[in-house]
Amino acid sequence: MRVACLGGGPAGLYFAISMKLRDPSHEIVVIERNRPNDTFGWGVVLSDETLDNCQLNDPISAKSIREHFAYWDDIATHYRGEKIVSGGHGFCGIGRKKLLNLLQDRARELDVELRFESEFGSTDGFADYDLIVASDGLNSKVRSEHADVFKPDIDQRACKFIWLGTHQKFDDAFTFIFEETEHGWIWVHAYQFDDDTATFIVECAEDTWLNFGFDKMSQEETIAACEKIFAKYLDGHALMSNAKHLRGSAWLNFPRVLCEKWSHKNIVLMGDAAATAHFSIGSGTKLALESAIDLADRLHSNATMEEAFACYEDERRLEVLRLQSAARNSLEWFEEIDRYLDLAPTQFAYSLLTRSQRISHENLRLRDKDWLEGAEKWFEGRSTGQAPKDSRPPMFTPFRIRGLELENRIVVSPMAQYSAKDGTPDDWHFVHYTSRALGGAGLVYTEMTCVSPEGRITPGCTGLYDPEHEKAWRRIVDFVHAETPAKMAMQLGHSGPKGSTQLGWDEMDAPLPGENWEILGPSPVAWSDKNATPREMTRMDMDKVLDDFVSAAEMTERCGFDLLELHFAHGYLLSAFITPLTNRRSDEYGGSLENRLRFPLEVFRAVRAVWPDEKPISVRISANDWVGDEGVTPMEAVEIARVLKEEGVDIIDVSAGQTSKKAQPVYGRMFQTPFSDRIRNEAGIATMAVGNIYEPDHVNSILMAGRADLCCLARPHLTNPYWTLHAAAQLGYDRADWPKQYYAGRDQMQRLAARAEATVMKV
Fold this sequence. Notes:
- This is Bifunctional salicylyl-CoA 5-hydroxylase/oxidoreductase.
- It holds the Pfam family Oxidored_FMN.
- It comes from Denitrobaculum tricleocarpae.
- There is one protein chain.
- This protein is about 40% helix and about 20% strand.
- By secondary structure, it is an alpha/beta fold.
- The strands form 6 sheets. Strands 5, 6, 10, 11, 12, 13, 14 and 15 form an 8-stranded mixed β-sheet that branches. An 8-stranded parallel beta barrel has the order 20-21-22-25-26-27-28-29, surrounded by 7 helices. The protein has a 6-stranded mixed β-sheet with strand order 8-2-1-9-17-16.
- Helix 21 (about 635-645) links the parallel strand 26 (about 615-620) and strand 27.
């Protein structure tokens, strides 16, 4: 094969090496515009996993790379005058120029032709080559030439950064430095990559960058300013730039690159030409080297180049998307750093460490048990106001709001059972709710309970508008209070445009097959083409609904519930007023957000007036309609939360979606937690996180990072009412409150969990 690698970075060089190792008869040339010793970065970071892959691919180059690595184990965070150090992270770095020189030497050994200071134009100039590898980096000429085929999606991110170096030593830790200045916050990512040189990346928001006047500075002036800002960390050492090839100050915005296709005819993209991952997770070189190995393998194991390209792209795209997801989480953390700057140093460092979601709570325990236990003690001390003797997982710390104290942070989400008869909960509901209370959760929610017969979602929905309802709910609440430490929450709602529909296990949100009752909405906008169009509510209708909520709230109090929640989410009546997707009114209840919130707030105020002062009220909202700017956006959700806080709402139950058939949600583990994070830390109100939270690790990570105050789990509690008690045993937490009747089962579960842990430790 005749192969042209256009670009002599790590991707092109290592692919040439990998191809030669598989078949020395390949005729390979690497064409690079720069000189052999030119480089415009400083150090690069590689993981042990990548090094192991390189060892299997080419032990000789892997050995030479390892010999020049700088290793460090700790991450140090300098923030608000404190230095927080967490260990066990296992990084290694190498100078980019040294890595290139080592790969160049290895390529020459294998008879790869290297052409430096060679510009290339169109790929048409390489028509006599069998394979053209576009490894020409971030600003790929090849990708631009064939943009109509590759269809690159290039997203210029918000923060400004400059890549510098220094002879100051950071050999004890990968170091983050956060400095507050008169112009705003500015921070550093620093790490050692050889005996006397470290990478020193300075980053800040664009507003801060403009406030400093960096946009008008030369590179020399920029360096002088950064040396002054970080003088106490540099200990007299200078900062250095090797970006003289760039005009101006050498500040950049990171471009996230992802291409729809990676190959065209005999051309294939590799490295940053195909996809980028933000430098804050250090995976760019990893992606380049591992992609080089994979493509070389595919070309030697498939019958045709087309098949090889298809397999290469299928395999590597999954890894790229995984890393880009982690990188997106990481870069967004830095872009949105203002929301975390009120966190205490311990929590700030924890949030930083877990920002990409690749490192979880228990993973941190494996890395540095002492540090994590210290952080857990801090979290518990903040929760209880007392200095704890021993640490416990955040999910098992108490939470207090008004006069309500929960034993732990686990909430059983509202889950419709569709089993009521004329709104009355029966024995099914008694077993359902009491078993989950016995299972250890701190707070157990009812399903959305409707304030009137016509406010039901389905004929099987529970209600609170009849004396029989009150009696049945009281029976459940009394049992929970008598036999468990759990508290009970009542969620009240009105179905609005989504009413008069079939049971959930028939056809969800579809109208009843027979006679339907009249449904109401803020505007005559049907939920779907199948559903009836709601009647636009009059002032008289609003007054009736408001009275129904007040009556249901009074019944809720007589039943003994500990917390009351109003349902402002998921397209039901009060949600339908809030979202512009279904609120098309032209009066004082439509149009602006202030107007759209008007009726829901009237309901809240009326309910708050009859609900005891010592008991909290929560509100569930849809923080994203998942339809872009046409509906409620996460930014608008923060404003909604601010208004609710000002009105006296105690905690926001942060959900999303289900307000429109047009919604395009992005699913994944903990996929709605970012909305809770944003609302909690920007609006300054307590939140509950919901949405695909299913492991104790998820819960502890969310709580410890300050992304929510409570965690709601739905489906896990459908399959396991005792999820919380099982989680306690799994985590080795022996202070969970088990029913005394189940002590024998508790003891066995704890013994088995301890035995399993001992086996893992032994292995």
